Structures are given as structure tokens and as C-alpha cells.
Amino acid sequence: MLFRGRISFRQYNLSKAHKYGLKIYKLCTEDGFVWNYDIYIDRDPEIADLDKPGSVVVQLCDGHLEAGRIIVCDNYYNTVGLAKYLLQHKADLCGTLRVNRKELPWAIRSKKIGPIKGEVVARQKDNVTVMKWRNKRDVAMISTCHNATMRMSSGYRPILKPEAVLYYNERKKGIHVRDQLSSYYDPKRKSPAWYKKIALDILICASITNATLMYHNYIQLLIENYGKPYYRRSKKLLGSSCN
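RE: above sequence
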């Protein structure tokens, strides 16, 4: 979140369009519904046997583990340790991976050893699969619910990709959907206090976005349960009357 005021936990990220701002962690479903919301205040939670990014994931998923859910994260959070921790709590992990992480096999970490274009190198241990697939460049993945199975992607130019890559690309859309929906209501006005920006983000960007998604799901449910049966029945009656 853009914020250029003076505050101890303001962050600087050169790769972002807004280089100064507040770091916010969000847990979203694949359709963009925000389940959990946390603000980085210079102190991340610490859980035994996990690094700080992994501890953030576990804290955000508090109340959603022990239910067989699949957690999708990017390479900033994913480690082998996090995958093992989630498996112990009846949850799975899938996402991209940085090749310099600990506990990775040499075939994944090495830049000299790698797959040729279109192929995948994978290793599995204790139900944790790590793989490196090359298309235009090397893409490292970690998953506890996929193996190295390849499948054709959909689209104008289908490409043979690992199932883990296809699953990650499909599920990561949730955060982008939320960002797109909230951008329509995002107040760009200057605020004298950071907590006002946080309050507006929770009220407008999270609450209104969630309400919009719930409304759309409710309308879709009404159409499925009531609209389509009447449509089929009327179509059948019209067809019989024409005959």
C-alpha cells in the first residue's frame, strides 16, 4: 500500500511501482475472497523450525489448517520446511521456489545441471516434490499434492507443462482478482495518518470486494437452482408445441 509518510515500519521495494509503502499480507481464495489480513509492523511471527516468511503463512492460515486445504504461495514464502510443517497439519503446499533454499537436492540447485526446453527434473522425499522445468527459462516448483506429471495447457498455443505449474497459475489468480476489484474503489487521496489508510483499505478494498464476490456467487446459485430448470422446461414446451 502506497505510503510515503514517516513511520518505523514503512517499506522500500525497488521493483514496485509505489516504492514506499506499507506491507500487507492477505489470505485469499482462488476467486479473490479475502479470508485473513495482517500488517507488517517490523516484527514477523516466529514459529519453531520455520523461517519468518513461513511463519507468516502459518499465522495467516490459522483456523484453516487441519482440513486438507491446499495453500498456494510464491517463492518468497515457500521452503521444504514449510511444506513439511503443513503436511503435519493436514494441509498441502504448492507454488514457485527459489533454488537457493535449504534442503534442496543438487539437481534442483545447480545451474549447470538442468532440463532441456520442455522437460522437467524432479525429486521427491517424504511426500514433498521439488522440480525444475524449463520453457523460456528455468522454473522451480514445490508441491506436496503433485508429482512430475506433465499436461497440456489450454489456450491459443497449448504447451506441455507440469501439473503443479498449471495448478499454481490457475490458483494465483485470486490475489490478482482481488487487486483488480479493489482498484475500482481504492482512494488515492493523501492521508495524514497511516492508520486511516489501513482502515479505508479494510473497509473499502476488502469488505466491499468480499461483498461483491458473495453477491455474484449468490446470483450464480439462484441461476443454477431456479433459472436453468425453468429455461429447460420452457424450451422443452416450446419445442413440443412447434412439433
